[in-house]
Amino acid sequence: MKDLNDLIDTNLGGQPSFQCKEFKMGNKLLDFHFQDTLQCIQTLYGDVAFVQDLALVPEQHYTSNNRMCHIVNEMHTGDWWWSMQVHNVNYNEHGNLGIFPGVT
Question: Mean pLDDT score of the chain, rounded to an integer?
């Protein structure tokens, strides 16, 4: 996470501009307008107005303390996000957080 924060802190350049590429489909020439995805992510992470809205870790919510009914109301509360971020974490013999498999 520190590497991501450092990248964002040093490479923020404001709101990304739209780019346009032309594509030929059949006999039509179409304009495709888009923004650079990495620049959009950097803008979101770098804007303090969005701090309260960013979900950085998965969460699990239940209807009661016995955890019989799991509530899924946002992407970061669902099973897929949980399995991708939590179950793929390695802990060392001391219980400290390790690295994600495949990430160097």
Answer: 77
Separation between Cα atoms, residue 24 and residue 41, nearest integer Å: 29
Is the pTM here over 0.90, yes or no?
Answer: no
Chain CA centroid to CA 7, Å: 15
DSSP 32-81: EEE--HHHHHHHHHH-GGGGGG---S---EESSTT--SEE--SGGGSHHH
pLDDT in tens, 16-27: 888 999 999 999
Boundaries of every domain in the chain: 1-54, 55-104
b vs e for 73-94, b when ≥16 Cβ sit within 10 Å of the residue's Cβ? eeebbbeebbeeeeeeeeeeee
Judge whether 36 and 74 are in contact, CB under 8 Å.
no
Percent with pLDDT over 70 in the chain: 69
- Find where tokens 């179950």 sit: 87
